[in-house]
Amino acid sequence: MKVIAIIFLVHYVIFTDAEEGASKYCKTADEKWDELKEMIESLNCPCPEPPPEPLESCKYGFEDGEKANKDYVLQVDEFTKLPVYCNMDGAGLGDCGGGGWTLVMKIDGAKSTFKYDSPFWSDKKEYEPSNGRNLDAGETKLPTYWSTSFTKICLGMKVGAESKFIVLNQEASSLHSLIADGQYRQTSLGREAWKNLISEASLQQKCNKEGFNVVSDVPNFSKARIGIVGNNENACTTSDSRIGFGTAGYPDDTNSCGNEAKHGGDKGDKSTEAMGYIFVQ
């Protein structure tokens, strides 16, 4: 559009000059150019900025110089672009630090959406992706659950106004690849690290089975898609306590994220529902 305007105006100036007499040609080239620029600017034809290229992940965005903690458009697969919240500098993420964290899930422990047996843990279906643009209380499961590889996981729980995060060094092609098949995969964070997710968290002293797809030997007792279960016996047969994400079972089958403990928890009986956050990098 601007090129057409320039051609028209050059044509207009030249032929107007010819009609008005040779005296117009005595103007300097700079004067003529200034006139032309003023006429072009008066047309007010701005060229829109091209949209930014989508990021492969928040980590790659961080490495390319992105610093703001906000939603960025990610190329989550060959055909899909989606705005996803990125935490670039680690602000508010405790020991997770910076480096570009990609949001994967938000889980409300008071709701059953992401309980242990929910199909969302095994399928490749998103849930409320618009809630993945920020860290408010809206639950979400993003395509980053099955499309984003990582070497670290940042796990957080919010109870009231307090948020606490821990980092888990774990390499995988996606979180889906660690969880969807239901196979137990052990981690070695230790019970105290898991307890750091919630102030005054309580766990029984024994069993201490942790990782992905953690279940008691008796299915109706405590289990977690990501987390730890405890028992008052050495075996994990009937675990009565847990801290984790995607939880279910005794003592409170309705709590899908947070802390449950009975029968000898080191901080007494607890039933704490949390807002859970899962990031990868």
UniProtKB/TrEMBL annotation:
Residue ranges the record marks as coiled coil: none
The keyword DNA-binding belongs to this UniProt entry's keyword annotation: no
Transmembrane region(s): none
Protein name listed in UniProt: Fibrinogen C-terminal domain-containing protein
InterPro entries from the UniProt entry: Fibrinogen-like_C (IPR036056), Fibrinogen_a/b/g_C_1 (IPR014716)
Domain of life of the native organism: Eukaryota
GO cellular component terms attached to this protein's record: extracellular space
